[in-house]
Design a protein that fits this description.
A 6-stranded mixed sheet has the order 3-4-2-1-12-11. Strands 5-6-7-8-10-9 form a 6-stranded mixed sheet. The chain starts with 13 loop residues before the first strand and ends with a strand. It has a single domain (14-258), classed as Endonuclease/exonuclease/phosphatase (Deoxyribonuclease I, Chain A), CATH 3.60.10. It is 20% helix and 31% strand. Helix 3 (142-156) links the parallel strand 7 (129-136) and strand 8 (164-169). By secondary structure, it is of the alpha+beta class.
């Protein structure tokens, strides 16, 4: 983007995040206000959320509590929620929350384990359009995850040249074939900034029954985007209980901006 004198100007910076909230399992009524407090502190422009209880609507509750905590001059968050495919959609789904204007939205059936992806196209303050895609891939089978990743990549070839991010719980490690498929278009925001992925994104001490840690959560960016910073978030326990975290996952956050064309 250039100004009237031909001098290049930077696109506005955006804060993007992702978090698997573990639906209403594992002490949800105790941890839900902790989650909201750290979400208010983070104030992402767009966040992808996975493992959401559909009935009653967990994303509606989170969005309402988040908006209640904002000042009157801040734009409220809106959400785009998608249930899992088939009857599983009555139980669980994923969502994107945005405080930027949503100008288009959609979803994609990924097949296998009732998995889905969803997306929003948002308008930045300078008029630039950005798409954020969100997914929760298969937890059981690498072959199926690879197929789901391929479906996402193939879908994105129909979306034009709009700058695009993919966020979510991909249930795949950094060296997996699934990340190689997604690497045809995307790069990890965290690894770009920090030189490597974090030690783990799952589990937190909320799950003392799990003894091994893994990196399975990502913010992935395409070449139209510059990553300014990236860090772990939703990673602090309650002050009164070191085992009570917002979720059994930690989140990823990143500051990005659209590269000048």
């Amino acid at each position: 983007m250039s100004d009237i004198d031909g001098v290049e100007r930077s696109s506005p910076r955006l804060r993007i995040a992702t978090l698997n909230v573990r639906n209403t399992a594992d002490r949800w009524r105790q941890r839900r206000e902790l989650l909201v407090a750290q979400l208010v502190e983070l104030r992402p422009d767009v966040i992808g959320v996975q493992e959401l209880r559909r009935r009653p609507s967990q994303v509606r509750w989170i969005t309402r509590r988040l908006n209640q905590s904002l000042s009157l001059d801040e734009p409220p968050y809106r959400y785009h929620s998608t249930g899992k495919a088939g009857l599983w959609g009555l139980w669980e789904g994923i969502a994107l929350l945005s405080r930027l204007p949503i100008v288009a939205r959609g979803s994609l059936d990924l097949g296998g384990e009732h998995r889905v992806a969803n997306w929003v196209r948002v308008r930045l303050v300078d008029g630039t359009l950005l798409e954020v895609h969100n997914s929760h891939l298969s937890s059981r089978e690498e072959r199926l995850r690879d197929e789901q990743a391929r479906l996402i990549i193939d879908h994105l070839t129909t979306r034009g040249e709009t700058p695009t991010l993919l966020v979510g719980d991909l249930n795949a490690g950094p060296a997996s074939s699934t990340l190689r498929v997604l690497g045809e278009r995307f790069r990890s925001a965290y690894a770009l900034v920090n030189g490597e992925e974090p030690r783990k994104t799952w589990p937190t001490a909320l799950r003392p029954d799990v003894t091994h840690g893994r990196v399975i959560d990502y913010i992935l960016v395409d070449d139209h985007l510059e990553v300014v910073d990236a860090w772990l978030t939703f990673d602090r326990p309650a002050s009164s209980d070191p085992t009570l975290f917002p979720s059994d996952h930690v989140g990823i956050a990143a500051t990005v901006r659209v590269r000048p064309r």
